[in-house]
Amino acid sequence: QGGAGEAAGPGGGAGAVAPTPVTIAFRLATEPAGAEVEVGGVKVGKTPVELPLEKAKLPLVAKFTRDGYEPKEETLTDATPQVTLTLKKKSGKGPGKGPTIKTTR
Fold this sequence. Notes:
single chain, 105 residues, mainly beta, 4-stranded antiparallel sheet, 3-stranded mixed sheet, 0% helix
């Protein structure tokens, strides 16, 4: 009678394993919160956001956009895993509201 097939040796025969990429956990935040974040041209969420990035792919440019505020960019490196930016309001005409549009006749 043929024997039952057993696993070939301890460890399950993993073979050659590629080195695990080193990742850095970035924490990106803006004041005010809720800005759309793009890293390397890919949307990754809204601030505050935590994002693991491979060290080998750094530096990467993060772009922060939010309605009513000027867009901002920041270069992400392994030296700056925590980024907090203050977004500047878009300069409008005068303080407060934009132009008033009357729709009644």
